[in-house]
Design a protein that fits this description.
With 110 residues, this protein is an all-alpha fold. It contains five helices and no strands.
Length: 110
């Protein structure tokens, strides 16, 4: 895993430990929190047209909300991975490998 991601995981763990939140950071609770935060990200786009959604970062207030929700999603995902001992970058690389086999480029063996 990259040093940057490990440093962020350590900061998140220290933040939770200082507040004595570890008992609440179970896989189930973190998965639920991740889902809630992903839903809050989706809510920003809920009624936008495709054109409005493509320009969402053009408005400073909306861009700030999007960045905050992305940060929340990533924070809970990193905490979830920490609790279960998952290296998210290794998991992603393995998934991409499987998808490349599952969905070959047209004309290249598929």
């Amino acid at each position: 895993m990259s040093d940057d991601l490990q440093a962020l995981q350590r900061r998140l763990a220290a933040f939770a430990a200082a507040r004595r939140w570890q008992p609440y950071h179970t896989p189930k609770n973190l998965a639920a929190a991740l889902s809630v935060e992903a839903s809050e990200l989706l809510e920003i786009f809920q009624w936008l047209t495709p054109e409005e959604a493509a320009g969402v970062m053009d408005d400073a207030g909306t861009a700030h909300r999007v960045k905050d929700e992305v940060a929340d999603v990533l924070a809970y995902l990193l905490q979830f991975c920490e609790v279960l001992g998952i290296d998210p970058l290794t998991a992603l690389a393995a998934k991409i490998d499987r998808n490349e086999l599952r969905f070959p480029v047209p004309g290249e063996g598929g």
